[in-house]
Write a structure and sequence with these properties.
It is built from 10 helices and 14 strands. The chain is elongated and about 75 Å long.
Amino acid sequence: MIRVEALSKHYGRHVAVDDLTFSVDGGQVCALLGPNGAGKTSAMRVLVGLSRPTGGRVGILGEPVRLGADVLRRVGVLIDGPAFVPHLTGRANLRLLWTATRRPWPPPALDEALALAGLGPHLDRRVKRYSMGMRQRLMLAQALMRDPDVLILDEPANGLDPAEVRALRAHLATTAARGAAVLVSSHQLAEVQQFATHVVVMDHGRLVTTGPLDALLDPGDTLRISVDDAGRAVAVLRAAPGVGAVSAQAGEVLVTAPGVADGDLIRALVTAGVRVDRAGRTGRSLEDVFIAMTEGNIDAAG
């Protein structure tokens, strides 16, 4: 339902997106992840017709995308946000935006979208009196109110309180469960781990990895070891036979070594003079994997 093929986007000499390919199917909630400047927003803007690609192709629901394309009526978008009319109320702005679809008011999911956005009585205040957080909530409402077949959201939880973030998470899962495709860019990795089914990781404009979240975390292959010298432990383990990936974090090392006994890894550390306090198999957090990938500590296969 979302397809990006060999996409590139240049701004003068700056390469924002470089040969990016991924897809999102119906029923998936895909998180688009990457450090600041990785090219996530540039890719999303091209995907919804707000920017023209330098190379490659993008498509939604099997159709090519350009600004004003008919297929965009079936897409809920929160990227940069629409230009609200400041002297109109929030409700009036939503109605004005809806008229562009040439369908009768109200939108099919208006009530649910407003409940999730949490604007309450502020909906009937003029937008010029809105805080930045309130404007973000209004942008979220306009993306959700059309009950879209495809949702493309850039940092949708900005400005939401914890209860509203939880409600948004449930809404995204429900939207995907009815067959929609959801693409969400976010820096809140702990939150992403709770709702995403798939991930796309970018760095410096290029694809690092893509696939199901469960496969990326792969808890059965990761040994977490608490040590007195994490830097020394990383060097020792990287030199050990059969070790595929090692990363360090807050006095611990996470090592992936399929087929290597835990005792052999611990023995290698102790022999090298590294004190081991405790060790155990555990699932890696998305934050662990993301930091290791984008800092170059592990490869895409992780």
